[in-house]
Amino acid sequence: MVDGQVVQLPQALLLAAVLALGLVSLLALKLLKSYLSGKQSAQQEPDWSVPVIDADAAGDSLFHRWDVRFKLVALLGFALLVVATRSPWSALIAMLIAFAAVVLARQPLLRSLKRLLAMSGFLGMFLLVMPLTVVSRPEDILLLFSGLEFLPFNLRGLQLALAISGKACAVALLMEPLLATASLPRTVEGLTRLGVPEKVAQMILLAHRYIFVFLEEARRMTTGMQVRGFRPRTSTETLKVMGNFLGMLFVRSFERTHRVYAAMQSRGYQGRFPAPFYFKVTGGDWLHAAIWLLLGVVLLIFDRSGVV
Amino acid sequence: MHDLLRLPPIDFDGPAQFEIRNLQYLYPSGQQALRGIDLSIAAGDRIALVGQNGSGKSTLVKHLNGLLKVQQGELLYQGQALAGEHLRRARLEIGLLFQDPDDQLFCSTLYDDVSFGPLNQGVSLAGMEPLVRQALASVGMEGLIYKPSHHLSYGQKKRAALACLLAMKPQVLILDEPTANLDPGQENILVELLHNYQGTLICITHDLLFAYELCQRAVVLDHGQIHHDYRMAELVAHPPSMREHGLDFSFRLAGLDSHQLPEPQVAAAVPLVCVADKSAEVATSPVVELSDYHYRYADGTQALSGVSFALRAGESVAIVGENGAGKTTLLNCLMGIHNGSGTHLFNGRELDKQQRQLLWRKVGMVFQDPADQLFCASCAEEVAFGPRQLGLPKDEVVRRVDTALERVRLAGYQERVPLHLSGGERKRLAIATVLSMEPELLILDEPTAGLDPQGEELLLEILHELPQTRILVTHDPFLVAQLTQRTLVLHRGKVLQDYSTADFLADQNLQSLNLLALSYKSDCSRQILALQHQHEHSHLHQHFHEHPHRHGEQVHSHAHEHAHEHDHVFTHTHGADSPEHCHQIRGRFHDHSHPGHENEEHEHEHPDD
Amino acid sequence: MHISDGVLPISVVIGSAVASLAIAAWSVRQTDSEDLPKVAVVTASFFVSSLIHVPLGPTSVHLLIPGLVGVLLGPSSFLAILLGLLLQSLLFQFGGLTALGANALMMGFPALLCGLLFNKLRGRTQKQHVIVGGLAGGGGTLLAAALLALLLSSGGEDFFGVAKLALLAHLPVFLVEGLVSAFTVSFLFRVKPELLGQRFSALQQG
Fold it and tell me: What number is the ipTM of this complex?
């Protein structure tokens, strides 16, 4: 019934492994949390803050000087090539390259770390479930723990999950060099120069801007409910209040859309946003982009040829 | 009956900048917003557009730059109807400042926002940066040029929005409630900026003190019609017509009467005595007491540092301070929403974190913007929400809903939809939602923000009747005088002063600290008071003249005899220390002009005085 | 739950990107061009509402609201969802940038479908609105979960386990979303029924 090479292991080993893993991850999480929360340890209130996309737009590095259009094409192209690889080793190499990019772009690790943390739940599911649920093939190595024979631990599954996590982390690490090194309007303008319709590109900026406004509104409304004794519980009453709350949020946002649009019109909006940017291409931009894409292609070739 | 013979109040030659003839506007809902507006506005006019909430001011203004299409009638801007290319050009010449600056700052950084208009005007990229810098510098925000707007304070946003318009060098500037929610310091900056502005200024406002300072002409709208078109000074000098349009803010001036201290109005006398009497026993058990209280935000901003004060039962205390002084944070701490460090006593018992969570049962707060507090589909549900959370039995909830609604003069509104109510009604509903919980301590955050003077007066009446211990947060010295006996001045998270309201109102130091620019307001108030005073001495006399006038909806014009009350400037003074409004009447007649009908016969003599 | 980078096979990544690009183009065309900025502003409020956590037993779930977006925006909902997901990816790394197409399909398609069904079936009474709205809200989530499972399974047999788990994890959310959507629709029906008409121009005057 079970294909593949079976390696029988004592239960004690599993126990030890689980314990060790658990301890290590617990410790890591603790450290990370205290590191991330830093000064705000006294806070018990829900955190409503939204990170800033272009935190380091005013900085200076190789990535800051890079023309956004080339940056977008090169890094997204590289990301796509990374996603196409299969082995965990290619993923590891991709991660290292991406990490190098973070360092080269002089981006604080903290922000990249937050991005990785945001994916931890989703990737954790893969890491936990895949080794136990992948189909066993003849060449697979299965670890069987005494007493838990019905639940073989497939190393190929672990490998798959690791490859996925590695790739996800590699692409996530690229985000800071890609997004934080130019102002958001500039990045978006780069998108329009690359063929994204201007109106759609402007929608990104508008939506981004008003997230902060509505967050503030939502925060005040939550406070308003709180001071009248509302505490979320698992009950239909809570859901009803949530329904009203969302309804109110939408009503206010729809009303605001009209005012915003009127404000745009009053300042001469005629269907297009004027772009306050210059773009200048240098040979360096081409070279930089070429290097990234080449790196990606080489990585993919090695991956597919089975060298790594 | 209205006297219409006052047009045009300001002489101007040359063509009108705006010429509006018989403008009508019907909302899709069928509600008539404007009926037969006739108005001409000259270049350089400074107009205050006043009237009750819902009188059609915003609708009229939206026509001026073509945001609303003319349905019926005519609107000419520089001689042409607003359409096509002319409309485009007009919009680039007319700046409209929205009430909520967040509507107007729709770009990612201030630079983008300010450059949006000029770029549409065709200003080249090369000249942009100096232009943007100049516009921002004129509102005192040059250093924030690349900041995203969500990092700005409310007052800064308001100024930034104005900078967006100024960068376009507008020929017409239209402002919709420019002073709403600004602290007096910010308001002063705004007034100064607008003083220096050369073009046509049209200003929607409830704040007649502000309008008086800036505008020469007052256009009063009522139910979509222009009821008066006065010189500003004439309007404020005429309480009856202001009252008719719900604009009478004279009640606000009563206290300022000729004397520095609004003593007659400060309810201080009685309560202060009370406090003195009971101090021995009361002082032992204040309702709320904070000592050495600190609060720091997640981002590290120290919002409160070492705040200490106590609040006795039945006391009314005002908390004043500039925007960002930590007032809202302090309120949130008192409500138990924020947990700071330090001692927090309620009814004499120290609160731990869990008990702070329960403070909502004892402390009620009315927010500045009722929209943040109202989220139900009917008024009854809205008011019942709190009592239900308290776990009260059904019939008790119903009883409380009814009493609370009655208290705020909204009896019978049970099934109405809160979102459809007017601004004043929503405010009162928000108060009812808190009253129904029968709190021991009531916190009011800028209770009169956005209300017209009539709404304000009603609200004051309601607030006066409430027995609760109160904390009032406001920028308005008048409200402080009316509603409180004690004042805390908050500055950068610290309690700077804790003294009686009378002392606060007399405190000149605050002005030098630029905390509260009271002097400007009281100056205006006194000027207006003087004008009103003069007017009270006009008298009836008979004469003939032709005279268009209105009977209800009907306007007609024919000569007839009628009693006509003149405005005439009768300059007189009385001693600053005179408590009464007494002055000698020097004969029945005094010299005055008859604007508009000098040559018609008069039934009274003009003695040369 | 959003798919992160590196999970889907490259063919599925590209295929779904092309498909959602096509649908997005259609969605843009269905929207009045002067309403595009308005869709963007409303999207911000959907974004904010998806950050809200609803307690559920010992844990809490955050809302996905594809059904509700569909109910409110109709054909424009796909565009709004694409935009919202892009921003979630850029700001929070919820969902990978390379998987954006797949994520948009997974949430946007249910939104379109629910919007269409709601528009057809909502009738006139409040009761009918609420029931259909609730079904649309819950159904949207269920459909999104099914699509998620389908997309995950595209990686081959090895991924079936994860796909099943993802589907199961969404079941409680389905109930919560259905009820919240029903309440929201009921609120809007009483307070501002124009919003349920899926057209901006109908509510020009607030």
Answer: 0.92
